[in-house]
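Researcher: We plan to redesign the surface later, but first we want a full-length starting point. Tokens attached.
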């Protein structure tokens, strides 16, 4: 649900860089009311045999090109935390305490997931900014009325503009007082603008609106930040909002559930974001079969071990972490090794995980689906968000066949050096 722009400068370490008061932007609400959208994408021709084409689908899983409306997280990006209070509630906690709810853990999550390629540097304001209206007046909720949401965003940006130079930040987090009576944690999300808002000489494409109670949901800010990098929601939203939300990917990848036991991003997402390069992705072209080696997705890079990677042998620069089997113009299978280490330290099962990728399916429509290596059974019923898929990975000697493509995947061996061998057959 998000995308930011690179700044010309950075704020001071430890706090948001303040600016001299300036004329507050006018007609925010009117502008926002006509510019709130899901987010633009554009199609392009594939540049490799396994690079699915980016389609018009919202947050398409195509990765042949990068949508420049989003900042690519392959370097240090700067984020500002703006804290908003309301006339109808006196904050019970300080901005410093709220900052500690999210950082440095969110930054550490991305450092581990990116093998140290991406650093999220936060700059937190030290005081509350009061909104002009009571929290209840905005009618904050998950399926927010566009007009009320525009009112909220307009007031929030106008309140922050005299103090924050938005041109210096790639990501904007607007964090509401968690104890205000009108704040609803279900409303936390990224809001995209069809037409970027010009503020402080830069284009603002989106903001992350945070309405979390304390303590906040696990990995919630990392999930929302993923939208800022053009990643889709991988959960399934029932039409009546009743039923199971996690049938597509279960615990795997925090873009499915921020509560999942295995929140490490899929290898496909790491490839899309630039954390895996082509040398680390094996491509099985149409009509091919064969035997391939894989290192665990969370194995630390050979340049240096990252926190939480103890027990996993470091991977070489060109070791494959992801195997992609092209199955159609807009579809592929992803194959990777998952272990209980790093961001996945709470995983209850390990092994070779297989999933479908569809670049033509939009966010929440199932752009990624995990294939269950053990249908009819489950695991970690007391902790998993969807036990049926918690035991999805294959072990040595096991195999599965994707009924959609007919491709079979069999695990042949796990080496003492941590490398796994899989066999792919087209049938």
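Model: Full-length starting sequence:
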């Amino acid at each position: 649900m998000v995308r930011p722009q690179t700044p010309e400068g950075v704020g001071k370490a430890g706090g948001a860089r303040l600016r001299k008061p300036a004329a507050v932007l006018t007609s925010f609400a009117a502008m926002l009311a006509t510019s709130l959208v899901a987010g633009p994408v554009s199609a392009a021709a594939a540049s490799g045999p396994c690079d699915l084409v980016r389609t018009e689908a919202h947050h398409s899983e195509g990765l042949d090109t990068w949508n420049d409306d989003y900042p690519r997280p392959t370097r240090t990006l700067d984020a500002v935390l703006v804290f908003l209070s309301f006339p109808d509630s006196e904050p019970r906690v300080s901005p410093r305490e709220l900052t500690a709810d999210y950082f440095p853990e969110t930054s550490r999550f991305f450092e581990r997931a990116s093998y140290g390629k991406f650093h999220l540097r936060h700059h937190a304001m030290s005081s509350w900014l009061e909104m002009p209206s009571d929290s209840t007046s905005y009618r904050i909720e998950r399926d927010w009325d566009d007009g009320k949401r525009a009112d909220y965003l307009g007031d929030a940006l106008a309140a922050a503009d005299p103090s924050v130079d938005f041109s210096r930040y790639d990501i904007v987090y607007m964090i509401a007082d968690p104890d205000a009576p009108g704040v609803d944690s279900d409303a936390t999300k990224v809001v995209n603008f069809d037409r970027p808002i010009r503020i402080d000489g830069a284009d603002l494409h989106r903001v992350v609106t945070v309405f979390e109670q304390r303590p906040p949901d696990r990995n919630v800010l990392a999930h929302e930040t993923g939208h800022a990098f053009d990643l889709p929601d991988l959960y399934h939203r029932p039409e009546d909002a009743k039923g199971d939300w996690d049938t597509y990917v279960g615990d795997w990848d925090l873009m499915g559930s921020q509560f999942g036991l295995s929140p490490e991003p899929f290898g496909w997402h790491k490839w899309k974001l630039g954390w895996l390069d082509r040398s680390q992705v094996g491509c099985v072209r149409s009509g091919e079969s064969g035997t391939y080696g894989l290192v665990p997705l969370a194995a630390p890079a050979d340049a240096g071990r990252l926190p939480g990677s103890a027990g996993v042998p470091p991977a070489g620069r060109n070791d494959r972490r992801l195997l992609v089997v092209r199955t159609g113009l807009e579809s592929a299978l992803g194959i990777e090794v998952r272990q209980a280490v790093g961001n996945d330290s709470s995983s209850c099962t390990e092994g070779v995980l297989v999933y479908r990728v569809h670049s033509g399916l939009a966010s929440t429509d199932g752009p990624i689906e995990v294939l269950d290596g053990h249908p009819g059974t489950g695991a970690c019923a007391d902790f998993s968000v969807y036990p049926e898929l918690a035991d999805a990975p294959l072990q040595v000697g096991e195999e599965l066949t994707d009924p959609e493509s007919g491709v079979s995947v069999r695990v042949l061996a796990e080496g003492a050096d941590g490398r796994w061998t899989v066999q792919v057959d087209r049938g």
